[in-house]
Amino acid sequence: MSKYKIAVFDLDGTILDTLEDLKESLDYALSVYHFSTHSINEVRSYVGNGIRRLLERALPDGTPAATMDEVHSAFSEFYSIHCMDNTHPYPGICSLLQTLRENGYSIAVLSNKPETEVSKLVFRYFEGFFDVVIGERPALLKKPAPDGVNEIIKCLAGQKEDVIYIGDSEVDLATARNAGVDCISVEWGFRDHDFLVSHGATTLVDSTDTLLQLLI
Fold first, then answer.
1. Which distant-in-sequence residues (6+ apart) come within 8 Å of 208 by Cβ?
2. What angle separates helix 93-102 from helix 115-126, to the nearest 10 degrees?
3. Mean pLDDT across the stretch 29-46?
4. Quick one: which of 15, 147, 172, 187 is 20 to 30 A from 134 by CA?
5. 19/13 Cα distance (integer angstroms)
6. Which of 82, 101, 119 finishes a domain?
C-alpha cells in the first residue's frame, strides 16, 4: 500500500501532449508581429513557466512591454480556439488516473497555464478524474512557488506527507521541493532524462506502468 493519498499532476508534458498546439499558437502570434518563429525543440525548451515566460523566451531581448502585451493577446486568442487541435493524453494516462481513483487517491492537476484553458482541457480529456484543478490565478503565485500545492492540500484536507507530485520539468522539481513534498519525474514529456537528473531528479519513470507501480 502506498504511503501517498494525494497525487498532484502537472498538465503540459505530463498528462497531456500540448506541444504542437503551443507551437502553432506561438508561430501565429509571432508571425502577426513579424517576429521569427522557432523550431519545435526550441519551443519545447521554452515552456514550463507560463505563457508570459514562453513569450519572453521566444521574443528578442529588449522587446518593449507594450509589444509583448500585444503578442500575448494574439497568442491567447488563437490558443483559446486551437488548444485542442492536436493535443492528446499521453498513452496510458487515462487508465492510470482511473486506477488511482479506484485505489482511493484524491487527484489534482496544477499548471502554470491560465486556469480557463486548464479547465477546458481537463473537461475535454479527463472529465470526472480530478478533484481539484488549479491553473494560473491572480491570487496564487505560479510554479515553482509552492502556493498551488498548498492550495490543493488545503482543498483536500491533506498533509504534505500525503502528497506525491508528478511532473516533467525542472519547474516541477523546484515546485515539489519548495512545497516540501515528494516528486516523481516522467521522461515522456518536455525534458529528457539527463536534463532532469542534472536538475535534481532522483525518481524517474519512463512509462505509466512504472509510475503506477510506485503509486499503488
1. 90, 91, 92, 93, 95, 96
2. 80
3. 96
4. 187
5. 8
6. 82
